[in-house]
Predict the structure of Manganese transporter.
Amino acid sequence: MQQALRVENLSVSYAGHYAVEDASVSIEAGLLVGIIGPNGAGKSTLLKAILELIPSDHGRVEICGRPLQQSRRTVAYVPQRSEIDWQFPINVLDTVVLGTYPNLGWFNKPGRHERQAALECLRRVGMQDFAQRQIGELSGGQQQRVFLARALAQNADLYLLDEPFVGIDALSERAIIGILKSLRDAGKTVLVVHHDLSKATEYFDRLILINKRILNYGVAAEVCTAGALTKAYLGDLPFTNQLGVAC
Ligand code: ADP
Ligand code: MG
């Protein structure tokens, strides 16, 4: 079976403190995978290190059997909403057109074809009527759908999304999870940082449980056992209290 992502002994530190320590995981293609763990567990750091947006201390990452330099075009990333400058003067359509850039040849500018492709992606997320709006004028759920459309426009094989359901309405959440499941059904691999444990088994095929180290990776229902979760969330009492309902 083809490995969509292979992380080997990856460690990342900030100012001498490990945020991710000796993480290893191999993920088969065609899975929808949730990354769960308490606040500050290193979930965002793991995604950024996979994408080489931040340097790692050591370790290796392969995407579809190749290093990132050779597979960058095949990876789409949707950062946490809080990391995006929503005041940046750009409209919805142009934001999505940016997603087509990795597939444009050198010296080529996006043209009619790319705009059509971007509009089609906006239609898939139900945002075609907002094409000319400034991104800052949208609700949280609409912003998240636009950034998902941008990722779709990239036509990637591996999708990494950081907390896409935080601060959005129920309708947008249903639309987004529906699209992520259809990507998975089309053979794509989707990794989603997620912290609402109540939906973890309903949404995901597999879960990565992380708290600095990867504590578990496997079938969602099996990872979501009270014992493993309590260990991961130890010290994070509000979360631990939710566990009975969650799994
Ligand atoms: P999560 O996404 O699971 O909430 P993060 O990956 O954002 O966790 O953070 C992991 C740890 O690294 C936390 O202790 C956080 O405070 C620290 N951290 C994250 N980003 C930075 C940074 N840019 N500089 C210093 N420390 C950071
Ligand atoms: Mg985070």
Notes: Residues 237-247 have pLDDT under 50 and may be disordered. Residues 14, 19, 37, 39-45 surround adenosine-5'-diphosphate (ligand 1) (CB under 6 Å). The domain at 3-84+156-243 is CATH 3.40.50.300 (Rossmann fold). Residues 170-185 form the longest helix (16 residues).
